[in-house]
Amino acid sequence: MRKHAIVCLVLVLAACGGASPNGDGDVRTLEGRRFVVSELVVEGGSIDVTAGPPTMNFEDGRISWNTGCNDYGGLAILAPDGELRVTEIAATEMFCEATADIESGFTTALLAVDRWALETDTLTLTDTETDTEIVLVDAGPAPIN
After folding, report:
1. What digits encode the pLDDT tens for the residues 126-145?
2. Which of 30, 34, 59, 114 has its CA 20 to 30 A from that of 144?
3. Strands 71-78 and 14-15
């Protein structure tokens, strides 16, 4: 396995207050929570994530995620009206054959999604134009770094 370390930047999660798109609280309700991908659909095709489901953390105003192999961080703008943008992504660079399809699919999906909705313990990220959806379920508190 070939490893290339890149400093993983975890930038500020910029969020406005107010209600989530479904009215179940506001963007701040994501703070300190960890989510695990339960469903991943990229351009209409479902990807099996059981070999290593990606996780996403919201902690101290930052967003970070792990795809089963690499760690990522970036800037996510989650507006109260449901708009979502993920930018300025940095990551470690390792190749893990067992989870390569999951990582590729998740990264593609995360760059495509432009809407978010939180309903109780389920966070859904979508892009209806490309039929892409990431469904994440709450996995408890984000791990302490």
Report:
1. 998 999 999 999 998 777 65
2. 114
3. parallel
pLDDT of 24 higher than 60: no
Whole-angstrom distance, CA of residue 103 vs CA of residue 109: 10
Angle at 85 between CA 83 and CA 87, to 5 degrees: 170
pTM given for the model = 0.77
- Extract long-range pairs of 140-144: CB within 8 Å, 24+ residues apart: 140/33, 140/34, 141/32, 141/33, 141/34, 142/32, 142/33, 142/34, 142/57, 142/58, 142/59, 143/34, 143/57
* Encoded amino acid at 81, one letter: D
The whole-angstrom separation of Cα 143 and Cα 55 is 11
Q: Mind giving me the DSSP string for the chain?
A: --EE-------B-EE--S--TTSSS-GGGGTTEEEEEEEEEETTEE---TTS--EEEEETTEEEEE-SS-EEEEEEEE-TTSBEEEEEEEE-EE--GGGHHHHHHHHHHHHH--EEEEETTEEEEEETTTTEEEEEEEEEEPPP-
